[in-house]
Amino acid sequence: MTLSLDAIKIRQKDHDIYVSAVRASDLLNNYRVGWWSRNDQSGYQRPLRQSRLREIQSYLTKDIGTFPTSVLANVRGKINVKPIKRIDAKRELCEVTIPDSSLPLWIIDGQHRVEGLKAAIENDSGFGDFPIIVSLFTLNDTYDEMLQFHIVNSRAKSVPTDLAQRHIFRMASKIGLAEVMAREGERDALGAAAIAVVDRLMKDENSPWYERIQLPDEPRKQPGEVIRQRPLSDSIHYILKEKHVLQRDPDKLAKLLGDYWTALKEIFPIAFENPEEYTIQKTTGAYSLHMVFSEVYDKCEEAGAINKDKMKLVLKEMFKKTSERLGAEINDQFWSKTIDEGHHLAQSTSQKMIKALAQYFREALWE
Q1: Is-contact 288 351, C-beta < 8 A?
Q2: How many CB atoms lie within 10 A of CB 172?
Q3: How many CB atoms lie within 10 A of CB 264?
Q4: How far, in Å, are 100, 296, 326, 360 from residue 364 at the CA level?
Q5: pLDDT for 186-234, tens place per residue?
């Protein structure tokens, strides 16, 4: 089958966009959504929120029930365009025919509206004639789809930050880290670059981070997961910022961090055995310990070896001197989430307190 649409072709910079109104039933028979998941990282959409679908269904059936903004969709194949009337240099009335070989339409933005209509039609078939405003792209690359989604959603702060980070990581893979820094800023770019390291750590069965990181396709933490992707990758940005050479070698940094966290696990075995009850593998621990990784690296390099055993010696000495300065022993209990047991510096999630803890570590290293 083919899908025929009366449309206005609009030329914006280097892209033609076809604006039309599509019957809901026609769209619902010819669409797909590229969801991001750990098994399909070419996708870029967040998971559907059932609460949002219920809101849309209620809005359609009981409220005003209009969708005045367009759904963004893409045709990945060829289309046939028959000009009807030229309006001006940038606008033209036309008839667009999309052959079966070029379907489905890929929804870039508006998946909840489309799925909400689908649910409404199940209860009232009359919604099959509901006209949906669609802005249609003809982008050949899924990367370009992702870029459109990222621009529309992240700039409006409606896309989850963990998924937005995946978008930026994919941009860096496509156009280079330097260009992404210019577009998104150094912090966001380096945090996204750290995704390559995070993925390696979570897939390594010997890593203390194996299966302990919550990814964007998981609305809730799964058993064993103790930290979301975003705070972990953001904390690694401090390393990439200070050690530029490691920006180009995620394998090397993942190996170094695997040794680093294995050394920490050997120093604090109870905290790693019960990670939910301690903060060392949560935001506080990840940030404070990654903030001083470069100094530990330099200390090991001075000693002639950068490996797990050497890191363990440097870290044990750092914790010993920090204990003396703080007047509190840095042991497993130090990282406890229990108010009466853990130290307040290890329990706080404010950046000010985390940086204060990192500064204690840093000063102990260079005493």
Answers
A1: no
A2: 22
A3: 22
A4: 67, 11, 11, 6
A5: 989 999 999 999 999 999 999 999 999 999 888 778 888 999 999 999 9
